[in-house]
Amino acid sequence: MIEQTVREYESLLCDIRHQIHEHPELGLEEIKTSELVAQKLTEWGYQVHRGMAKTGVIGTLKVGDGKKTLGIRADMDALPIHEASGKPWSSKIPNRMHACGHDGHTTMLLGAAKYLAETRNFNGTLHLIFQPAEEMINGGEMMVQEGLFEQFPCDAIFAMHNMPGFPTGQFLFQPGAFMASMDQYQVVVHGCGGHGAMPSKAIDPVMVASYITTALQSIVSRNVDPLEAAVITVGSIIAGDAANVIPDNAVMKLSVRSLSRETRELLLKRIPALIKAQAESFGATADVNHINGTPVLINDEAMTQFAWQVAKQQFGEERAVYGAKPLMGSEDFSFMLDENPNGCYLIVGNGEKGEGSCMVHNPGYDFNDKCLVPGSAYWGALTEAYLK
Ligand SMILES: [Zn+2]
Ligand SMILES: [Zn+2]
């Protein structure tokens, strides 16, 4: 089994993971991380392309004369969080931390890279895609826009994320919508400031923002199909600072999620329309700015079946779960799947109670090293199965 072969260099993989973990780098600043990735890939005989989306790295390995091409993607960026995991390999940089396990994702793909270069038990072209800036900056979208799939054509693409709360090394698969779309808005409600004792001489943007907040929930309850998932969160309202002053304006920040392209389209149409009309109904106006958006992540059904079969064969039924619940978080691999829909994004369990169960984006989180061998072995098995 591949797992046994990869286990022979488990300590090397742990070293690599800890090295990346100690030096976390934010999106588009993955200088040291991408250097390490490129150096390892070169050492193992990959053709290495650097500089896509600033710090992206693509390692290509061609074996035999097979025409099929496969892309596997890992993310490399860290978060602006101050680490409190207490691990010996904790971040050495204040307020920077690998709190989403991208250090582990990068290392699992490197583990597969080493295995596949040494065994060469496939026929075709393999592209290992190390992307920057998954968190908030959409590095995946940047790579697609910079011609990732024109320069490195992939017949199918895959990616994996760890998830605390599931058994260590268990693999989870879900066809169709798996991760939500995420859109953000900044809204400025323009009223007319005045004395708190003379509201009739003013247009109160605080009251308008409050009505908008309430009215927005009617989109979820009255416009969205009740069988579809949607979330509209007003996470911030900032206006005024004195009890007896009506301010000129109010600034609101919204985060919006959905699990289908149709629902997202409806939300993106209804939200600005409702905000503007609601403001107008009070004699105010509103500027509505869509800040950034990530599409719904949709897994191809046949590719999800295929990816699940690989896990079943490699690790047995118990460790390969088909039919996971979709998650309302977002993931910029969706940009790659929108461009190249023949693919699947899957989850590897980071651990239940105790080890590995601390949620991602928490200062106490750490990627579970016990996932490194199964994760690397999985990518090895998937490559051998797809590029037969
Ligand atoms: Zn994250
Ligand atoms: Zn992540």
Please outline the helices and strands.
Elements (H helix, E strand, L loop, with lengths): L1 H6 L2 H13 L8 H13 L3 E6 L3 E8 L5 E7 L26 H18 L4 E8 L7 H7 L2 H4 L4 E9 L6 E3 L2 E4 L1 E10 L3 E2 L9 H19 L6 E9 L6 E2 L2 E10 L2 H21 L3 E10 L2 E3 L1 H15 L4 E3 L10 H7 L3 E9 L20 H15 L2
Parallel strand pairs: 3-4, 3-5, 5-16, 6-15
Antiparallel strand pairs: 1-2, 2-4, 6-16, 7-14, 8-12, 8-13, 9-11, 10-12
Helix pairs in contact: 2-4, 4-11, 5-10, 7-8, 9-11
Bound molecules: zinc ion (2 copies).
One zinc ion binds next to loops.
Shape: elongated
- Radius of gyration, in angstroms, nearest whole number: 23 Å
Order of helices and strands: HHHEEEHEHHEEEEEHEEEHEEHEHEH
Number of strands: 16
Number of helices: 11
The parts where pLDDT drops under 50 for at least 5 residues are none
Main sheet specs: 8 strands, mixed
Structural class, from secondary structure content? alpha/beta
Strand content: 25-35%
- Terminal-residue CA separation: 17 Å
Task: Describe the strand arrangement of the main beta sheet, using strand numbers.
Answer: 1-2-4-3-5-16-6-15
Helix share bin: 25-40%
Ligands, ions, cofactors: zinc ion
Mean pLDDT: 97
Pfam families: M20_dimer, Peptidase_M20
GO molecular function: metal ion binding; N-acetyldiaminopimelate deacetylase activity
Organism: Pragia fontium DSM 5563 = ATCC 49100
Keywords: Hydrolase, Manganese, Metal-binding
